[in-house]
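Discussion board: Methods & Data

I've been asked by a reviewer to show the raw model output for two of the constructs in my manuscript, not just the figures. I'm not sure how much to include, so I'm pasting the format here to get opinions. Each protein appears as its amino acid sequence followed by a line of discrete structure tokens. Is this the kind of thing reviewers expect to see in a supplement, or should I convert it first? Here is construct A:
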Amino acid sequence: MDKTSLTQGVIFGLREDTNMTDQEYANLTTLFYMAYAVAQFPFTWIMQRFPIGKALSVFVILWGACVMCLGACNNYAQLAAVRVLVGAFEAVVIPGFVILTSAWYLRKEQTFRQCLYYSQNQVWGIVASVAVYFMARAVANSGGIAGWRVIQFFMGGLTILCGIFDLLLIGTPDEVWWLKKDDKAIAKARIVTNATGGAEVASWRWDQVKECFTDPQYYFSVLFNFLVMVPNGAYITFNTLLMRSMGFDPFEVILYSMPSQAIAIFFVLVPGLCVQYYPKTRFPWALFVTALATASFLFVGLTPADTPKWTKWGVYIFALPFATAMFLIWPLMSINVAGRTKKTWLTASALVAYSAGNILGSQIFRDPPRYVRGLIGVSIAMILYMVLFVVWWWYYVRENRRRDRVVAEMGLTPEEEEAERRKAGEQDMTDVQVGGGVGSG
């Protein structure tokens, strides 16, 4: 939710109170993701060397504290410095939860679980929007502290509270206090057949890093994360300004953003559930929702300026489901990639690309108030990653057929194949060493 605190704050006086230019406002997102990228490798190394639940929780608390500090800033320089810290501390959240998910759930269960996590962005986004609406109304009526400052204090405090709960509750089966010894053994044994490694503290293995650079999955993941974050960076930075350009006032922008969040929840959970029971639907769903969102962005960008605002809004609320592709494809980094170090390196590399995409997205909206060129730019990025989906899907189909042929030639029974997978998981072997085989295709 903290990502929306900036874009919500900008319609409640953030730029005016801090004397920021339009370019400086866009730069706040750029600085965030530059810090996010730089922090990936050192912080993910820390999470591999220390208990992941505790390390992740501490970073979340520090992240929330920095968001609260944004509310105390008075100029661009202060905002820029704090945004760098926010980006650095938030850098571990996605890789941390990807790894934790792989430590608890079977491969077939992970996509829906991760979609469930990510849908909370929108669930709590709706809750936060309601809270922000009433807080901003109260501030406007009372003439007290600026609305944008209240938003930062609220979002940051909520993040700190989440971090405290995380500190008490989350971790690997070995780390958590609320499982008995026997239950921990059962939880660990349950996921050994994933053959993708756990989330335990482990030594760094450079041979697994080297293997990344010979694995097509590495390049698919990096390129996808770059392209999919172009619309993301644009949306989280300019969504409210784009709605303002349609003719909505600041309070209407908050209220009328909620339907798009509800639609996004549907388009995250339904495809995620389908993929759990019908794994081969992953890429078709990703292609469908991306095409829907692309059409929405293009419609808003290419329709005449005098098009009624409700017509634009009615189409624009279908733009946010572009994020569904992220949530369907991200789990592949934990489902199909084995080896603790390999998984960590691939995830960190992908998130550096994620940061670069967000930086580009935040900088291409330079033609206010309608941002036509920016909307066309994000649409081109989405078309490119739809092409990538087709190639990636073909690769997995080919690899699955190759794996099935090898298993048939070896004459392994299902029980023997499962025993081999358990052995691979216990020995921190990579997916290439196991013999390939992927979970979606």
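Construct B, same format:
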Amino acid sequence: MEKERLSTEKALQFCTVLSEQIEQIQADFQNSQDPDSTSEMLFGEGLQGCVHHMRFTLARLEEHQKSVAERLGAGFNAASAEDRASFDKLQNEAKTVRHCLAFCSDVDTYVESQISNIENHAEGDDTIQFLVSTNNKPINGKNRGIGKRQKQAGGHFGEASLQQMSQDFKSIAIHQSGHVEQEKQRSATPSGNEAPPASHQSQFGNRHGPGFVLAKTPASKLSSDTVE
């Protein structure tokens, strides 16, 4: 019975650790789950069922541990049919735990294969970063950028949405960079050489050239030329 008690305690410890690992996997999966994916929904339900089963197994092991401890305390050491039944029960519980361990190993392998770990880092102005999934595959990553007018996108997108967003980002970047270049040129132009305001320019300047100013002729000379 002493060996049975030690075996039960060991199984309890193992079952507790395993249950905690399953709950951690479940929490990580829920954070990255796509609510519209049927396969992920089924996987989540299976994971939840495994958690319930492990809790049930843990409760049964704790109850059996208490029974073994009470029997040891009462000085029951003789081998009996009840002892053999208890031993068989422990073997069945160990088998259940092994099955759960195999399942959790498969779950861990599956989750690792389905998650993409990405970290983007960009330096410079007007940079564009994407951290997206177009096939409902979970993503674990970060977009980091240093510079002005950073543009970042992350999450789950369709192919068409991603292409449209890429075009929009590109158009915005071109517009912003052109505006910045104009501001630089304007600030670099000396104040004495600035072009006159548009309101003071001739409306015919663009069609007939810049033109030139005629010399002023005295009125007396103009009159004498007319008489002759």
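Answer (T.O., handling editor elsewhere):
This is acceptable in a supplement if you add a one-line summary per construct. For B, something like: The longest helix spans residues 38-73.
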